[in-house]
Design a protein that fits this description.
By secondary structure, the protein is mainly β. About 0% of the residues lie in helices and about 55% in strands. The chain has no helices and 11 strands. Strands 2, 4, 5, 6, 9, 10 and 11 form a 7-stranded mixed β-sheet that branches. A hairpin with a 2-residue loop joins β9 and β10 (about 105).
């Protein structure tokens, strides 16, 4: 069973930056997992923001391309989301997800609030 713990959320002004971290435990093969960041704003569905494959390939939602960067450090069992040029519409709870062999694991989420 994989456990995921997100951190790094908070309140930031528009134009600012935050770096989210997602630390994984309970598995010795973190490097084999595909990882993704999702976000969910109040009253809206949970949508994917960015993903990174086990081989390092990345994908981004159009709304964050050029502003967010996903990365992973397999030696630390951690995936990151660097968020720059934040906008009020980026306000949401951000969730980390791990995918492996058809199984999905979610973290508890971290709140990101961007003030205008």
């Amino acid at each position: 069973q994989v456990q995921l713990v997100e951190s790094g959320g908070g309140l930031v002004q528009a134009g600012g930056s935050l770096r989210l971290s997602c630390a994984a435990s309970g598995s010795s093969i973190f490097s084999a997992y595909a990882m993704a960041w999702y976000r969910q704003a109040p009253g809206k569905r949970r949508d994917v923001v960015a993903s990174i494959a086990s081989g390092g390939g990345t994908n981004y939602a159009d709304s964050v391309k050029g502003r967010f960067t996903i990365s992973r450090d397999n030696s630390k069992n951690t995936v990151y989301l660097q968020m720059n040029l934040l906008k009020p519409e980026d306000t949401a709870v951000y969730y980390c997800k791990a995918i492996f062999m058809g199984r999905q694991y979610w973290g508890q989420g971290t709140q990101v609030t961007v003030s205008s």
